Amino acid sequence: MLDSESNITHVVAPLLPREEDHCSQHGSISGAVFNISTTMIGAGIMSIPATMKVLGIIPGLVVIVLVALVTDITVEFMLRYTSSGKSITYAGMVGESFGPFGSLAVKICVIITNLGVLIVYLIILGDVLCGNESNGITHLGILQDWFGIHWWTSRAFALLILALFIILPLVMLKRVDSLRYTSAISILLALVFVVICSSMSFYALWRGKTQSPRILPDFSQVTVLDLFTTVPIFVTGFGFHVNVHPIRAELGKPGDMNWAVRISLIISVVIYFAIGFFGYLLFGDSIMADMLVNFDHSSNTPAGRFLNDIVRLSYALHLALVFPIMSYSLRANIDELVFSNKNRPPLALDTPRFVSLTLSLLALTYLVAVAIPNIWDFYQFLGSTTIVCLSFIFPASIILRDMHGISTTKDKVVAIVMIVLAVGTSAIAIWTNLYSSIAH
Predict the structure, then answer these.
(1) Residue 4, class by beta-carbon neighbours within 10 Å (0-12 exposed, 13-18 middle, 19+ buried)?
(2) What is the arithmetic mean of pLDDT over 203-227?
(3) Which of 58, 258, 276, 422 is the Cys-Cys partner for 48 at CB 3.0 to 4.6 Å?
(4) How far apart are CA 164 and CA 361, in angstroms?
């Protein structure tokens, strides 16, 4: 970031120093693809079918593809300016264009977004394993279905065991590329969900129990403003920008990041549309905002109950494996915010600092998820606003600022359009959601 006294640009050190990058520890393109795809295929996949109900099949596919294309453009902006500048972190890149204030804004947005997402992940895991209560209706979790209601099937105990024996060993890994295998498993679990959902849809279609999917929006049931509420869901899903720099820093050739991003976007578009289409085909207009609730309904057959349990378990494990990727960038940005002006070694080389920060963040997310299990709406609002900044507004702003003199006229026009659409769409979506909440 810029030093106000000497006006010298300091390079913000990555989590691992450059010397280690030249060892035989280069990240691979496949590992980058797995980690990027896992970031995008997170908790939001369960909300995709509900957007198809609002938008219709064809507009839903169009919106998914458009958001993916815009995401590719913004990441290309970020990679180009990172290559032209001296900083190798997101906050440092924005700091080169907008000084300490810009760098601070990025760090705050990353911390709010990722911390909120991690807490929501644990809340969802608690709901799947231990159940919840909404609108006076009690939903039993998998553990309570299997073993009954006991202290060891409670949310606090189940999440503690999950955090200690599954999540903790993964968040203690110091290289993001080390998560490529768990990320691959996470994507495989998402594919398992697609296969199960599509199989159930075809079976229901064969038995004549499906509804005709809505091709276009039905304006007798939704308004034009309702259409805008679906866009933040896709923006949140494709918002992997906070992990662009950590993953790029570990690739043997930083230029490989472009290929990894585009392959990941194609994978995510296919999975998003498949889940949205088959989920909507299976449940029709009864689809809930969180499709997992539809699978939570009890079935009268052993096969149906078995499939419901498989869906919920695979989704729970999927989220547990996404958790370390989001935790990685959160930890790096908090460390950069707290220790950036102090003469300390990189985080990965300072074991006491690394361990204490990792344990503190995991403990914080666990305590909040157990104490405030209804915090979803609050963090969904924060996450939607900050993710828009991280995904579109900040990358477009550095193009307009053009500190390195590499932006073309076309780039600047695209950046202006991107900012206007991002701000306008988010404002309409936020207003519509607030109005609906007040009305109900």
Answers:
(1) exposed
(2) 80
(3) 276
(4) 13
Consecutive H or E run containing 359:
helix 351-371
pLDDT at 341: 62
Label residues 115-147 b or e (16+ Cβ within 10 Å = b): bbbbbbbbbbbbbbbbbbeeeeeebbbbbbbee
Instruction: Evaluate whether 68 touches 272 at the Cβ level (below 8 Å).
Output: no
Q: Which residues contact 368 (CB under 8 A, 6 or more apart)?
A: 119, 375
Distance CA 224, CA 227 (A): 5
Chain centroid to CA 158: how far?
A: 23
Q: What is the pLDDT of residue 6?
A: 40
pLDDT in tens, 59-107: 999 999 999 999 999 999 999 999 888 888 899 999 999 999 999 999 9
Return the structure tokens found at 377: 């709406």
Residue 215 and residue 415 in contact, taking contact as beta carbons nearer than 8 Å: no
Strand partners, 251: 27
User: Which domains, and CATH codes, for the chain?
Assistant: 18-439 (1.20.1740.10)
Q: pTM of the prediction?
A: 0.85
Across 382-411, average pLDDT: 89
Measured CA to CA, the distance from residue 199 to residue 189 in angstroms comes to 15
Q: Which two tokens stand for residue 182?
A: 């768990």
Are 398 and 74 a contacting pair, CB within 8 Å?
no
- Asked whether the beta carbons of 62 and 269 are under 8 A apart, the reply is no
Mean residue pLDDT of the chain comes to 83
CB atoms within 10 A of CB 303: 8
DSSP element (H, E) containing 275: helix 256-283
